[in-house]
Design a protein that fits this description.
The complex is a heterodimer of chains A (341) and B (330). With 341 residues, chain A is of the alpha/beta class. Chain A has 13 helices and twelve strands. In chain A, helix 8 links the parallel strand 7 and strand 8. Chain A starts with a strand and ends with a helix. The model of chain A has no long low-confidence stretch (mean pLDDT 89). Helix content of chain B is 73%, strand content 2%. The chains are: A alpha/beta (341), B mainly alpha (330). Chains A and B meet through helix 2 and helix 4 of A and helix 9 and helix 10 of B.
Amino acid sequence: MSNFLEVKDLSVRFNTEDGVVQAVDKLSFSLEKGKTLGIVGESGSGKSVTSLAIMGLHKGSRAEVTGQILVEGQDVNAMSEAQVRKLRGKSMAMIFQDALAALHPYYTVGNQIAEAYQVHNKVSKNEAKKRAIEMLDRVGIPEPQKRVNDYPHQFSGGMRQRAMIAMALSCNPSLLIADEPTTALDVTVQAQILELLRDLQKEFGTAIILITHDLGVVAETADDILLMYAGKAIEYGTVRDVLQKPQHPYGWGLLTSIPRLTGDPDKKLLAIPGAPPSLISVPSGCAFNPRCTYVSQVGAACSSSIPDLLPVSAGAHHLVRCHLDVKTREDIFKNQVAPNL
Amino acid sequence: MFSFIVRRLVSGVVVLGIVSAIVFGIFFILPADPARLSCGKTCTEELAQKIRHTMELDIPLTSQYGRFIKGIFVGRTYLPGSEAELQCAAPCLGYSYQTDQPVTALLKDRLPATASIAFGASILWLLIGLSSGVVSALRRGTWIDKFSQGAALGAASLQIYFVGLILQFIFVNKLNWLPTPGYSSPWHYPLDWAKQMALPWITLAFLLSAIYSRLTRAGMIEVMSEDYVRTARAKGLDSRTINLKHVLRGAITPIVTVFGLDLGGLLGGAVITEYVFNVPGLGKLSTDAVANLDLPVITGTVIFSAFFIITANIIVDLLYATLDPKVRLK
């Protein structure tokens, strides 16, 4: 099956006054239609920068984007702004974390959805409004023919995110990028939004990139996971592989830091020591080495050379970027990580 | 909405009352005697007293103020019953000490010139200020931006009496392209009106478009980094729609607010502009009145300006509620 989206060696650099920020470093991944890829990482790991690069939204900014972003075989990165514009909204659409900020405060929700539809469809204002009502209805807004005339501030947080989704899906895009779509919402609404995304994906066959720092969200929704740290992919594989047989110490850290309903309430959660590095001065070697508990098992290589992103076993789809050898990783996971899960 | 307007109108009237009371009070404190001023060099105390009586200055200040306010609403009769009885129809603001004309008639006479300056200049400065601000914001950091913002800074620092006189010297005295500024009726002599108003418009717009240009530029740049502009781009909109429909719309509210207040302020008298170009408007009327201590005219012009500013404020508030759906009029 051919991939709808293929990202090859994507790098994004920003030249700032303080130095060069390597926000994304040689990132490669692919996505089929109807599948969901979860990109997971802490703030500043390059998730959002990656999604903006796919939408071609770095064009005209100071960002330097290299590599290939093939959407249905066409390289977005090689296109002009005018060419990418034809794909935006139609082939690929995006929803953002803070829907209140992402919707124009001075136009009605309906107006904004209709506008998105009219960009790529030659229809009258009336038809576009009908489409807006239809989309609002589809994403579960009650009384859509009335709410279509509301302004964003008259919607609740969950409804605003639904409206964003309605806007993004108004032109039936093949790819939907959801940049932390549920972060600003409370848990019950979060679950509703994720369910909505799943339903819409089934109905329209949309490929979804779900950007999040919440492993729980990915576990529920994604088919594949790409774990990012300091702009690099450090682990990439199916949800089952990455969450059940995690290979990278960072992934272990993330998993053991999550409280579990079935766990011992008196047991302390294990935090990952330290903080994510500044992208201006990324630690040499493996960027995670200053925070890694297992450096002693490898030695100098951790701080001197960057490990490659390699298959866990020959031919496996599960890739990891770590100096620990397979045997040691298995031992550590079995003896030190798994008991804490 | 309706109750909002009514309440604002009532509070506007109250403010006008306070303004008029303050102006009245200030003149009472001033160590000047209008009766003495108008009775000439060979004035005797007896004559002065007589004039004081004619001017109704020999009654307590509160009664003077009471008669003044009453005059505005129902008109006023000076020296009732005597030979010199004088009817002043509502809205009566008294008579000029200097010219003996009713203040209301003076204001009515001078308003068209001031309104011509204010409206003409405001159209000009909005056009220039908004367009140069938009271009500057879109071409931030390029030579166009640097040039227009440098020019704006320069223009904002130059004073009307400087720019005005230079322009007048060049276009009227040297090149003879324009007549000496003044005022002709736009209904009867539209071409003369436009030619005479050209310099006042340009001079005033020169200063104010600089401010609007910087305001527009700053607002646009701020809005450009808003999330909703990124959303607009992600929809696939072209840059023209993004900049004019999304960015400018997001930045326009404070500009409209400032514009309303500027225009309201100017309608009360473009003092310096009128003085520099010798245009017979309200500003000229009030400066002349101050110079001659023509108290009724000063009071009249102050109340008239206050009226415009209060009205402009109410209109701006109403506009604000239409421009920003989050604002509710309560």
